[in-house]
Amino acid sequence: MAIVVLNSATSGINTRTTLTERLTASDLPIRLDPTIRSQALRVHAALRTGILEGLLPAGLKLPSSRALAMQLGMGRNAVVAAYEHLLSDGLVETRQGAGTFVAAGLPAPQAAPSPPMPPVERPDRGAFALGRTHVEPAFLARLGAAVRRRIAGASLSDLDYGDPRGSAHLRQQIARFLAVHRGIRCDPACIVIVSGTQHGLRLCANALLSPGDPVWVEDPGYDAAKTALTAAGARLIPVSVDREGIDIAAGIGAAPHARAVYVTPSHQFPTGVTLSMRRRVALLDWAQRAGAWVFEDDYDSEFRYAGPPLTALAGLSAERVIYIGTFAKTLFPGLRLGYLVLPPSAVRPVLAERAAFDRFPQKFLQDAVADVIADGTVAAHLRRMRTRYAAARELLIEALPTASGGLLHPDAPDQGLHLIAYLAPEVDPGCAPWIRDRAGIVARLLSETRLIPGGREGFVLGFSGHTVADLRDGAARLGAATQEAAAVFP
User: Fold this and answer.
1) What is 389-488's CATH number?
2) Per residue in 359-406, pLDDT tens?
3) What span, in angstroms and rounded, lies between the C-alpha atoms of 41 and 26?
4) Which entry of 68, 148, 342, 367 is 20 to 30 Å from 311 by CA?
5) Residue 59 and residue 482: Cα distance in Å, rounded?
6) What pTM was estimated for this model as a whole?
7) Which phi and psi (to 5°) does residue 263 adopt?
8) What CATH class does 163-362 carry?
9) For residue 122, what are the contacts with CB-CB under 8 A and spacing of at least 6?
10) Running DSSP on this structure, what letter comes out for residue 28?
11) Residue 126: phi, psi to the nearest 5?
């Protein structure tokens, strides 16, 4: 910024020396962003930043549009447009016959730059990470083609506000699949498409429960479900799990008037046990008497390696059971598609809750997924993935005992995409975190899924979506670390 000293000899005015600031375009402390293609937007962005950061203080007179254009080597119209934009923003003001000035009364610039944002936590992608899937390029090509067809052929109704339950086409396909494979007979009108298990569970908890309501949860159990229920204000009641699944008698003893229960009956997370028929009947009887809701999370039932899929709880009684399904395991998590099968009495309150913050889900991807279900593409994909994941499961069952010298005991249920490798009794359970760190794996510890401490310790190992080489390497590292722990911490 140039500072010119004027005196009486040069000004013809017989006064004391006066300081005045004369600002030229080259003096402006601004930086033009070359990535902005529009000249007008480039100038506007530079001046706006200078004003908001306090580099151009309030009351400062800006150069004329002609002078600034000449200095910047661009057309005057671009500078005029930038000044008009700043005027509409309220960042500058014009004074008749005087020019353009930085506006007064703007927020004071921050004294120091904001601290850097912490990184957003994402599920780790290392050895044995849970929830990974394998997706073939051919399948993605078919799905992508279906999406393009749906968008290219969209009708006016497709582009308008949609049904809060989601795509009718997808709901019909889900209803057919559940009738054949899960024993659930349901009206597509009672199916609601959501973005995933947690979204669906939180939606139901907000709609059907009150803050402070007691809710049974399996212990050990699924952390994301506990998080969703806690966020909805539920009071979690841990109920132990044994070889028959959740202990109904223990739940009744702890909270006989609980308002809901969250269960994974077909493949309990994380132990992998199946809820026995005796316990299923007891659970449904209790829910009916107590007027409680049963949130049935059926997260990976499509991957059963011995016999057909089991009948869901919702297939035995639909009056109190809310069935939660997902495409995260059958296809891939990034799809962000799940669904609820609601009893008729729950449809209205759940949709009312959705209207408060979500309104309705997008339609094009849902219709495209329905298309590839209807034409058999998804069924063929599932058959191939079932074979692939079964081989990965067998690899770990064989590799872990050998790599650990018999100190890891893998327990692989007949379905699912993970297993538990239990520590042998001669290994101190307190060494498990050290073993995990030493092996460089991301597996959950069984103890980390419990609300009440106790019981055997082990590693929850995901095997889907990992290469054979990665699984072999991870098993070798985990086995070696376990043997080392047994020697170092006898």
Assistant:
1) 3.90.1150.10
2) 899 899 999 999 999 999 999 999 999 999 999 999 999 999 999 999
3) 19
4) 367
5) 71
6) 0.83
7) -135, 155
8) alpha beta
9) none
10) -
11) -80, -165
